[in-house]
Amino acid sequence: MDKYTFNDGSQRDLLNLLGTVPVTYQGFSYNIPVRLWILDSHPFGPPLCFLRPTPDMVIREGKHVDVQGRVYLPGLQHWSHPKSDVVSLLNEMSLTFGNEPPLFSKPSTDGRSVTELSAILAEVTTGISGTSLQTKEPSPHLPPYSKVTVLGSGDLAMACVTSILAKEIVERLVFIQTSENMLRGGSLELEIFSLPRVDSSKDMSASAGSNVVVVTANTLGKEGSYVNVLQSNVELFRSLIPSAVMYSPHCVLVIASQPVDVMSFVAWKLSGFAPQRVLGTGCNLDTQRLRYLLRPLCQPPAHQPWLIGEHGENQVAVLRGPGRDGTPDLTADHQTYEEAARRAVQGLKEKGQRSWCVGLSVADLTETILSQHGRPHSVCTLAQGYHGVGSEVYLSLPCLLGGFGVLEVTALELTQEEEEKLQNSATTLRNLLQQLTL
């Protein structure tokens, strides 16, 4: 017997059972530690079920588990004695957790079987009280688990899905189609050819517990003034972002919808997240392209060029990096480098960005976030306070990314002209945002 505290603060002595539920996940056996509280209404009422993580375990919040570790299953919601019993509940728990493990750590060989656990619980059902199921603490390590959701439709969404899948960085990838037209949305082909580890749905609950939520949805194909079309995008985001963060409250939002500077800001405002957890693809793709083209000229490699600021024609090319002593130190022949860099930047403007290219960029960002290694990228982030930007706008800046989104914004040494370009872009974006209703 132990004291259980209800939501209203009241306490009651209840029988609680401790044990592990065996789970088979991707061919390996694990034991999920659980606690069952048996209410006075048992067997006519369901028990309260909780995960029982060790200090080294992390609860994976999702459709069937909340942040406190309470378990929610159909068998609990539709409990009906004598049809419902603890035996069937434990089997349902084992099957459900086999599809989506609720804890992460190393595998364990310890744990009693469902049959043994059920036998003890059967004694409770027949009226024997004071029963305590004890087992050794399970090994503290369960399998790593990562889940990514892509919200959108069309070529860009499909490019993100296939690029992330090709990286082999996720255990589960969910595609939530935002278009009503299955033929245009892309989900038809996913349902026909059923890619491994990919689930296609129109139900946002399928995204629950995602580490990263990628948003590609937009309405830019509609007719009307630019501001009216953007407002349509805002309304679309209003229907998506709050729901997405409700199901994945600890995720990082990666925005690929265009115009990315504006829509990243809109997503931040609608999410209620800290700005570090909402970022846009921004200048990441063009920065990576530029670095690749100039790779033979960059010495040392750590001093790489950056494209920052407003995405598109007004992005700012920073063609030097700080040397070891804080002085510019990119190449021995700086003039040759500058000329090559400017030609490359102009070529990138003419090249543009295709859906499959942006999909690869999104996969690149997703990999960095999931790996939690803190790699630098030029992504849209809250620029207020950097380089003389005083307003709340999103612009691309060099950012270290990790599991919580933007870990750090790296300040570059900019010329007065470069800072003025950033500030002008900030003013333009702020004026545009003021015309939208968020």
Automatic annotation (TrEMBL):
**Pfam families xref list:** Ldh_1_C, Ldh_1_N, UEV
Q: Name one GO biological process term.
A: lactate metabolic process
GO MF, one annotated term? L-lactate dehydrogenase (NAD+) activity
Domain (UEV) spans: 1-107
Q: What is this protein called?
A: UEV and lactate/malate dehyrogenase domains
Q: Which organism is it from?
A: Callorhinchus milii (Ghost shark)
Tell me the lineage of the source organism: Eukaryota, Metazoa, Chordata, Craniata, Vertebrata
